[in-house]
Specification:
globular; alpha+beta; 13% strand; single chain; four-stranded antiparallel beta sheet; transferase; SET domain-containing protein; three-stranded antiparallel beta sheet; Rubisco_LSMT_subst-bd_sf
């Protein structure tokens, strides 16, 4: 858990995540009015209102908005980027660039987060009307109490949470060292102390609100992706069935508009404005946005392709003498093509999501459990990877493969210390917001595993019925 200190002249950050966090200041500037004053467009029927319990403030239609209507449009100078054309080439900016060079690409949000902290430290920042409207804290796992991090119960997510916390603590030390002898005028944060909690706040603000837009064209004609914070637009909530979409405008003629939100369908009175944040797993929604989507169709669980584990699962499924631990040469070659064997292999495989069983895992199971080289070589990897291709190596092999996956699911469920019914009972108790999120998350993961088991068990029954049909 990160310590609760922050920039000295702003309200201090807290570590206790809340599902409905207060703004940075008690009475922030009117964001809609600011966007309009700065040359942006806001539809007359758009208002800011309290959303659902887990989303805080959001944008709502005060009257019906027709399909195709422009709802929000932001000119070039309003989005907050790490680098902009009007940035001053001063010492403070140079220090910020040097700090950003220490941020790994996978934690790109911290780079823009540094710029956000710099602007938050300025009393006369252009973006203060926007920043003052940001939440004081974010309900993301890096701010969970230690017990609720454990309550997540899912090793891949625990690894990511610990990795981010370690990075923030180490980056705090590096930042203090780098800025130790910087002159006050060249200090990127106005000579104020920035600790791991402030860094965590900034990284969470960016990861939960930034959009990747097209940047300038490269010499080869491709476009770079530039993370930007889009005031007002970032108050749209998420849905896999959105009613609005982001459109980025080309800079041509006298148009100064960079990005706008357009109604994808008619938006009824009192409906929230919804964008699709992406087809993301529950891990990323919780890590970056601080909420859990029930029955997320894009969620999955991660497993390791481990030969001994697969042998054990196959035997538990009733397969006699599986040979995952000792594949033949031709099977090894196919595993190499699947990147499941060899020095630089990727042994992380998934269950759930749109594929139900990751293609590489399914192909490996089919190939190893078949033992018929000629039959295997009649099919390409695309067919062996697909669950839609029914029993390419015969019903017996397919049943063994699917039953092995079901056994893997049983093993995966066994790694959770509590059962779904226990979690659901706990959820009905008077628990803290962070405990509630942790319970929702692990229920989602366990339910996903159960759904995979049910689906594959049905497939097995259908295959056996076909096999026994006259």
């Amino acid at each position: 858990m990160l310590m609760a200190n922050s920039l000295t002249h702003i309200r201090p950050l807290t570590c206790a995540a809340a599902t409905s966090a207060p703004r940075l200041v008690p009475q922030p500037r009117d964001l809609i009015k600011w966007v309009k004053t700065e040359g942006g467009f806001v539809h007359k029927y758009l208002k800011i209102a309290q959303g659902g319990d887990s989303f805080g403030l959001g944008l709502v239609a005060s009257e019906d908005i027709p399909k195709g209507s422009d709802i929000i449009a932001l000119p070039q100078h309003i989005p907050l980027k790490f680098w902009s054309e009007n940035s001053l080439d001063d010492g403070a900016h140079s220090s910020l660039i040097k700090l950003a060079q220490h941020v790994p690409e996978e934690l790109w949000a911290m780079k823009l987060g540094l710029k956000l902290l710099q602007e938050r430290a300025k009393k006369d920042s252009f973006w203060w009307p926007y920043i003052s409207n940001l939440p004081e804290t974010y309900p993301v796992p890096i701010f969970f109490p230690g017990e609720d991090i454990k309550n997540l119960q899912y090793a891949p997510l625990l690894y990511q949470v610990n990795k981010r916390c370690r990075f923030l603590l180490e980056f705090e030390k590096l930042l203090k060292h780098e800025l130790e002898n910087v002159k006050p005028d060249d200090h990127p944060f106005g000579d104020q102390d920035v600790d791991s909690s402030a860094l965590g706040w900034a990284m969470s603000a960016v990861s939960s609100r930034a959009f990747r837009l097209y940047g300038s064209k490269r010499p080869d004609g491709t476009r770079s992706n530039v993370p930007m914070m889009l005031p007002l637009i970032d108050m749209c909530n998420h849905s896999f069935d959105p009613n609005a979409e982001i459109v980025q405008e080309e800079k041509n003629g006298n148009s100064n508009i960079l990005v706008k939100v357009v109604a994808g369908r008619e938006i009824k009175q009192n409906d929230p404005l919804l964008l699709n944040y992406g087809c993301l797993s529950s891990d990323l929604f919780l890590l970056d946005y601080g909420f859990v989507i029930q029955s997320n169709p894009y969620d999955c669980i991660e497993l390791r392709y481990d030969a001994a584990l697969l042998d054990a699962a196959s035997m538990a499924a009733g397969v006699s003498s599986p040979n995952f631990s000792s594949p033949s040469l031709w099977q090894q070659q196919i595993l190499s093509h699947l990147n499941l064997d060899g020095q630089n292999s990727d042994l992380k495989v998934t269950l759930g999501g749109r594929e139900l069983v990751e293609g590489r895992l399914l192909a490996a199971l089919r190939v190893i459990l078949s033992n018929d080289e000629d039959a295997v070589k009649q099919h390409n990897l695309e067919a062996l990877n697909s669950l839609a291709v029914e029993a390419p190596l015969g019903i017996s092999t397919e049943v063994s493969a699917l039953r092995t996956v079901v056994a893997l699911c049983v093993i995966a469920l066994g790694h959770f210390p509590t059962k779904i019914m226990e979690d659901e009972w706990l959820l009905k108790q008077n628990v803290s917001p962070t405990t509630e999120l942790a319970l929702q998350f692990r229920i989602q993961k366990k339910s996903l595993i159960v759904d995979v088991m049910r689906d594959l068990s049905k497939r097995v029954k259908l295959l056996l019925a076909k096999e026994s049909a006259p």
